[in-house]
Amino acid sequence: MVSIYKKSLLSCFFVFSFLFAEINSTINFNKDTGLALSNKDGTYINVAQGEGSGSSKEEATLNALANALSKIKGISIDVKQGVNQRAHTYLLGYTNVLDNKIKTAAKGRIDSYEITSVSMDTDTNKYVVSVNVYKTLFKRSEKAHIVIFNDSVFKQLGDNILQNITNELVKSKKFVVLDRSSDKYYKAEKDLLNSDDASSEDLYKLGNVLGTDYMLVFNLRKIGQSSNQSSKLTSLDDKNIRADVVLDYKLILFATKEVKLSDTLTINILVKEADVKSDEMASQKIAKELSSKLLDELFPLYIASVSKEELIFEESLNKGDIYECEGQSSSRVQIISSSAKISHAKILQGSPSLADICKLESQGKKANYELGEGGGVNLGF
């Protein structure tokens, strides 16, 4: 691997969750249709907006739902027919699960709605109600599906990092990681099951390939010097090299093609000539840095309980890891014990509070470089 680094350098050196939201939820959401929205409970899409009027709030809301549904291709529905929504839910800001009869008639395209405005038309003496209708992509309590793609300039090194990112995300138990790199093997097995040699009892295994929720695309784009005094890689000796790698990544929500996360990192690595272990450790470090960023953004870690000298997280974390917490003030804590579902931490600095958001202290840093003439790079150290 170190020879690859040297060669590369020489060449250019949400139910929806809300758990479907409690009936008395008063959270107002983004009103732009077609956008994916996320909170601590899940991710969902604002499918359409509607407006309706009626002599009661209930009638106006049902008419607004009908108006919203009429804007969705392939749906024709009279939501007032046989619907039993509860009248006390027709208030501004309330988020509700749709009546099962509406969801069935809507062919599963939506499953909940939010009342965004309620007013009285003084000319007609009728209520006017506006709504957003939503479709749940996945709940926080469910594992989102993710596919990882290596779009690296340094393809071979990128493949090693891809495997280690897969390892990290699987171990996190936050995602269902889908494979897209073994298609030729899958096709061979599929052809076998479709042949006369296969048992008919195995045919149920076909047609069950899962689609993805997220696509993670990364690019190991640059490998550069680690010294602030040299334009070359830092050579500790003839067989040891310390370098910075520049890694771009973006997380795309498949349903909408939105880029939910995007960043560029530089990560310092140490590689040794003909040393498999150091090569693998370098790949693991890069993968862990990226995975930690991803998990921190999508699954914020909240302080569940705090006392004078110790606090609790409702997640299994690595003993010894240090976290930076933000809330009413900044603080640093260190994990001192961990079980399957709970971790205890001691306070190193500051005064953390209940519900503060904590992130693993990063060893990486933001990229600080400029592209030079002729495709070169000035890392700015």
Structural commentary:
- By secondary structure, the protein is α+β, with helices and mostly antiparallel strands.
- The chain is 22% helix and 37% strand.
- The chain has 6 helices and 20 strands.
- The strands form 4 sheets. Strands 6, 7, 8, 9, 10, 11 and 18 form a 7-stranded mixed β-sheet that branches. Strands 12-13-16-15-14-17 form a 6-stranded antiparallel barrel. Strands 1-2-5-4-3 form a 5-stranded antiparallel β-sheet.
- Helix 4 packs across helix 6 (276-298).
- The longest helix is centred in the last third of the chain and has 23 residues, at 276-298.
- The protein starts with a helix and ends with a strand.
- The relative contact order is 0.11.
Layout of SSEs?
Layout: H1 2-12, E1 36-39, E2 42-54, H2 57-69, E3 95-97, H3 100-105, E4 112-121, E5 126-139, E6 144-150, H4 155-172, E7 175-178, H5 183-193, E8 214-225, E9 234-237, E10 240-253, E11 258-272, H6 276-298, E12 301-306, E13 310-313, E14 322-326, E15 330-338, E16 343-349, E17 357-360, E18 365-366, E19 370-371, E20 377-378
Parallel strand pairs: 6-7, 6-8
Antiparallel strand pairs: 1-2, 2-5, 3-4, 4-5, 8-10, 9-10, 10-11, 11-18, 12-13, 12-17, 13-16, 14-15, 14-17, 15-16, 19-20
Helix pairs in contact: 4-6
